[in-house]
Inverse folding.
């Protein structure tokens, strides 16, 4: 699984002009599922997101995780993170998992994060979404479960 994670002051997700999710301080994770990903990847990613110490302490050092700051985790599926742009001008998405498989693993990330006590909001899988955010820092991280495990 791949994720681009941003530390945010706030974020909102709209579908068809209607707000479906909103959050304050926390992490917004744009998540893609590759064909070979499995439940172990989803669990690893959820635990990593919940435990990332990217929020500042009193000295401005990144020392605190989501629970420490009562932050929210936003999870938005985004298969385009798996785009292959090496050939031609149109991206190939052949590495992305089929919809049902991807949906199940994205939902598993959300379930695991929620079970760990972190407030979680989501986008709407398979929908055209508008995502707005205010990045704090800015802090943006790239996570790939295949590279990290």
């Amino acid at each position: 699984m791949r994720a681009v994670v941003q530390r945010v002051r706030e974020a909102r997700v709209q579908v068809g002009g209607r707000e479906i999710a909103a959050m304050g301080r926390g992490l917004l994770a744009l998540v893609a599922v590759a064909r070979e990903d499995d439940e172990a990847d989803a669990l690893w990613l959820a635990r990593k997101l919940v435990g990332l110490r990217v929020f500042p302490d009193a000295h401005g050092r990144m020392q605190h995780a989501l629970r420490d700051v009562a932050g929210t985790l936003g999870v938005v599926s985004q298969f385009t993170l798996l785009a292959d742009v090496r050939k031609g001008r149109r991206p190939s998405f052949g590495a992305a998992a089929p919809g049902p498989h991807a949906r199940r693993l994205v939902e598993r990330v959300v379930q695991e994060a929620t079970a760990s006590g972190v407030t979680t909001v989501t986008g709407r899988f398979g929908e055209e979404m508008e995502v707005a955010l205010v990045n704090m820092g800015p802090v943006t991280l790239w996570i790939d479960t295949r590279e990290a495990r």
About this structure: Residues 88 and 94 are 14 Å apart (CA to CA). The domain at 2-148 is CATH 3.50.80.10 (D-tyrosyl-trna(Tyr) Deacylase; Chain: A;). The mean pLDDT is 97. Residues 99-115 form the longest helix (17 residues).
